[in-house]
Amino acid sequence: MDDRNFKDALYEQFARIGHALSTPKRLEILDLLGQGERSVEVLAREAALSVPNASQHLRVLRSARLVDSRRDGLYVYYKLADSAVWRLWAALRELGQLRLTEITELVRSICQDEASVDLVDRQMLWRMAQAGDVTVLDVRPAAEFESGHIPGAASIPLGELERRLSEIPREQPVVAYCRGPYCVLAVQAVELLRSHGFTARRLKDGFPEWREDGFPVEAVGAG
Fold this sequence. Notes:
alpha/beta, 5-stranded parallel sheet, 8 strands
C-alpha cells in the first residue's frame, strides 16, 4: 500500500467516529450512557425518541465501536465501550463551550440564575463528605443512582424532592448533583431547597466527571 492509499484508508477509519458523532441525538445518547448501562427503551424515553429510532442510532454508535451491547431476555442493554469514549465526549463538549458562544448563551437561557447558585468542586465536596460536614444529594433517576453514585449520597430524584424534604437534615448544608454541567436537575433542586430554607449548593459538574476523575464510587448491590 502506497502512502496515499494508506492515508486515505486511515482517515476513512477515523471518519467513522466522526460520522457516529454527527447527530445531536447520538451525542445525547453518549451523555446518557455516561451515567451507566441502559436498555434501549430507557434511552429512547430519556432522549425523546421512538424505540426504533433509538435502536438505529445505537447501531451506528456500535458500528463505530463507541458502545457495546448485551441481551438479557427480551431487552438489549448498551454501555460505553470504555472510558476513552467518555473522555472523547467530554473533550468535544469542552471544545464546543470554548469555541461556540451559542453554547454559553443556551446554557444561560436555561440557568438564568446560574451565577447565584454556589458551585462546589469535586475536591471540596470530597473533603466535606469525609468530614461529615455535608448532606450529598443525588437528584438523578433512581436507576442511575443504583448504577453508581458518590459514596454516602442520598437518592431523592428531583420529582420526589418536595414531598421528601423531611428526609434531609437541616443542621448542615446540602450539595446536590446530577448528570453533568448541562443537567439542570441539580440547579432546580438547589432552588427548591433554598425556597424551603435549606442551605444548598450544587456540584460544579456531575457524577460522570466525579467517576472519571478517580474519586470513589458506590453502586447498589455491589459487593
